[in-house]
């Protein structure tokens, strides 16, 4: 993690005697705050990643999870879905997966002598796209319309996906044989990219102790993981996030940051206007989670790496010198003037 990663913190409780609207806001914030505790019953030491997933839920944005094998990426998503009480499906992406396997297809019914649509796994609230970079670009592109338009088109007919709809895709950063790198157009559809770190020594020891005492990652109910928030809580929270104020100065700061990435000499592709919009949305969600009604420049800084780094392409010669998107963003954040 770097210094721009959102810090730890829990929402403040509403003081006694607050207006009903303020109490409702606190209730929605508390409901989502309980997700971290509930997911923690199954996953150890990944509170910051859970925070990133909750921010994406609040912003109706998709998530790219990257991490070496065995750091509980899949378990994180399953625990989050169980805690939020939403429908979830998992697709294991493989080289032979076809677009229709994901979106659904028309199936001939001999009894009625007609074709009927059979929904694919995309028709869910939370889709876990496991090892998305193992499937060919043709199938990867089948996700583009679903992620952007929240619908799929089969045989010329658009079919709306459920709401909420969130894609959480995982990929392995250390194994490239038989993989297909995600194109920039698809990377830009992910609101945030979260890098799941290896646990600390203490957290890893806690993982082993849990397994020694009988913890089964395939049985979350036995681990005590259950719904602590509903889709209604999520909708109320989204309505509250939409009311968080963002001043013209902070909007200008976001624009200046994104434009600076396009002008950096080591960058061949900077952040698009879609990325700037995403940073504004995640900053508002983070401000709301911290109990504020306005966005500060510190909120923007906190979410910049998660929201922008994966949207940038570094020149090959700069990569050879060790330059990464994160180091470019660190430089940009240090040089772009912060509004007062």
Task: List strands and helices in order, with pairings.
Elements: H1 20-39, H2 47-58, E1 62-66, H3 73-84, E2 88-92, H4 99-103, E3 104-109, E4 114-119, E5 126-130, H5 137-149, E6 151-154, E7 157-160, E8 166-171, H6 184-187, E9 190-195, H7 201-212, H8 231-241, H9 248-263, E10 267-269, H10 273-289, H11 297-308, E11 313-314, H12 316-320, H13 325-335
Parallel strand pairs: 1-8, 1-9, 2-5, 5-8
Antiparallel strand pairs: 3-4, 6-7, 10-11
Helix pairs in contact: 1-2, 1-3, 1-8, 9-10, 10-11, 11-13
Brief account:
The chain is α/β, with parallel strands linked by helices. The protein has helices at 20-39, 47-58, 73-84, 99-103, 137-149, 184-187, 201-212, 231-241, 248-263, 273-289, 297-308, 316-320, 325-335, and strands at residues 62-66, 88-92, 104-109, 114-119, 126-130, 151-154, 157-160, 166-171, 190-195, 267-269, 313-314. It is globular and about 70 Å long.
Shape, per Cα inertia axes:
globular
CATH class of the largest domain: Alpha Beta
Which sequence of SSEs, written as H and E, runs from N to C?
HHEHEHEEEHEEEHEHHHEHHEHH
Strand content: 15-25%
What structural class is derived from the secondary structure elements?
A: alpha/beta
Q: Summarize the biggest pleated sheet.
A: 5 strands, parallel
- Percentage of helical residues? 40-55%
**Number of DSSP-assigned strands:** 11
Count of domains: 2
Weakly predicted, low-confidence segments: 7-21
CATH architecture call of the largest domain: 3-Layer(aba) Sandwich
User: How many DSSP helices?
Assistant: 13
> In CATH terms, what is the fold-level topology of the largest domain?
Rossmann fold
Give the end-to-end Cα distance, rounded to a whole number of Å. Answer: 27 Å
CATH homologous superfamily classification of the largest domain: P-loop containing nucleotide triphosphate hydrolases
The average pLDDT score comes to 86
* Rg, nearest Å: 21 Å
As laid out across the biggest beta sheet, the strand order is 2-5-8-1-9
